[in-house]
Amino acid sequence: MSCVNDENFLAVALVINRSRDGPAFVFHYPSHVPALTNGHEKSDVIDVEDILFEQIAPPSGAENGPEPAEDGGVRDDHYTTEAGVQVVPWEHVAGFPARDLAYILTPARPYHKKIFQLSLDPLLCISYPIHVPENGKWKKTKKANKEVDDNIAPDEPNPPPTSKTDSNPEKTKDGKRDESDEDKRSSMTMFNLVFFLDPKRHEAKELVDSLFSNIVKKVNKAYQYSQQHSEFVWKESKRILAAKEKAREDKKKMSALWKELIQNSSLAASMCEVYNAISQNRIATLHLDTVDGILTPSVQIPVPFFVADLPAEDDERHRGLWLTTSNAFLSQDALEEPGFLDRNFALLLMDDEKKIIAELQNDRDPTTLSMIEFVRLAKPTVSFYQVGQSNILTLDQVRKYAQHFIFWRRAIAIPPLHPRDVYIVSPNCDLERLPQDAQDWQRAFPLAPPLSTFLAELSVLPRPYKHISPSKAHRPLYLRMLAWLMRGGWVTQLCTFAYVVVWPEILYEVDYEMEAEELGIATSSVDGGDATSIHTTQENADAQSTHSSLASPTQPQHPPQPPHQQQQQQQQQQTPPDAHALSQSPSSHGPKPSTTTTLSAAEHSAEMARLERIAIKAHREAADKATAHARKTSPVPTPNPSLNDAPHLAGLTPHIILDPKKAAGKESRYLAAIARRFRDDKLRSGWQLLCKYFDGRCALERIALQEDMKRKEAWALLTGMREYLLLTRHW
């Protein structure tokens, strides 16, 4: 995922459109957005349709860009040009007139709730425009017995008059200006929170996708909710625009005005929070002060907490992260399988448990007590499913709270830690952190060996973690030490993965059976390793072969006949109906030899001869195949097919089945042939159950969790199947 920072994320701005006054550039943050030069790399995006540029208001000839400050930024104060025109610093953003930006950043209704992407080379703007509903009302009105004008939402663009006397929208009955009516006429019809980016060419698409899905879309939706329930965006926008207009008249410095706006407007403050938090890779928590109360939505770009492969040497961002394929190898089928994640993952808190509980106890939220229980129960050695089996929390609560802590970056999901699993020093550990982490380790575990010594012990020889512990009584402490190491990315689990390997003995057996079936030879395979018995006669093979070459797929099968009978029968079947009738019925005009009839008969005779030659050839080939098959060595199962080097297996190489779940044709027969080799019924049924995990992606250590089996039982089955498994180990 591309990293968002203050170099590629330049600013955030709010643009609105009003029914009477048109687009307005409400607010942007940070206050000073410098103009980009063409020296920047051009973003690899498509410019928006030309029709949008036609909406740009003609620039005023007297309006020029703000004069740069001495430090390279934009001037903070107002100044007057030689022509006597006042230049206001906030009326230019990124080198463009704010008024013009307002027009081109006001997309038409077809862009409602869709990604809007605009390239102003090298500036890139992305947003998620929100338009007023088709009825012109943001807020739904409540049904009540009131006057017509009372039922009109205050932001309706063109409210209809209720009578002839009040048809003038500027005046009421007593001749005074109707402020609410004026408010309706100049109400907001669209708002658009726009993100200004300056991405490098290679990161443009990834940066846009990441920002849009995680931030742009969600913040605009939060604003939409606030607008629909309390007209929050419209009311705050009016306040900001009025403050800017007054500051323009007073020639107030931009820094002073922006400070006041952020302090007095929760809308401006929320935009400030979005920019500061997201550009610094933090969680942005908005505080929208609406008439219905304070709303506090939170958004973030999820930070990676693991890597599936070693990052590049210059990739500082991913160094020190947990190294594992347990998340990268999750298939869509696994994710959609009920209970898969619950059984395969546990919660690892990224802070001290006591510290998190103390923070929760200061929160008065009604769910605090159950969340505290979740923190106490959700150990890194216990799966979510096991936590949900308690009488204290339901599985739904466990999922909800786990998602909460993971979202707030207070925890990560890991496979449950177990003393029988193997853990090694992570190749991705950050050795630069060793001095500081060694001190933290010593404070956390005063009686433990030094961190460097403990890591060296893990590196000696990969073995179950329980062998590191001095005794069984020390295991709880050593598991806490292991959790600490996992939290810091110092260790990772060494897992075992498997593929099904089909040895030549099995390949030969399946090919032999398929060839026998093709020849129509009766075969029978006896379970438990008995040799395959074959009962056949040469006549049966010949008959089957001859019939296969002559019989039509739509005709009933009959025993083969001598060649002369076949020719006579086929001649009767294939003689054209009109020719047959002609040869059988007398002619009233006497016999008149016909050239056409004579040629047809000759052609028919030639065709019959050709078919007879084909039948004889097929007969001979079938006989040869049957003879060759009879001379082959009958397949004989051995206890260890991997060691079978019999001469008849020469030239055959083992076959690897990459995914048993997708096995078809020969591969499905290979799996069935292997199943027949197991004498033990438990192994035979276990093979059918566990075969789906032998795809090189599912760690064998997780099988017991997923199938709700005892670890000893699972490993006993796997040990009995090892002859037909190709094993590999990695993180």
TrEMBL record:
Compositionally biased spans, kind Low complexity: 564-577
Compositional bias (Basic and acidic residues): 167-185
Keyword Signal attributed: yes
Chain positions covered by the region annotation Disordered: 137-185, 538-606, 619-644
Ranges annotated as biased composition (Polar residues): 538-552, 582-600
CC terms in the record's Gene Ontology section: GATOR1 complex; vacuolar membrane
Location of the GATOR1 complex protein NPRL3 C-terminal HTH domain: 666-725
Family of the protein in this entry: Belongs to the NPR3 family.
Protein name, entry field: Nitrogen permease regulator 3
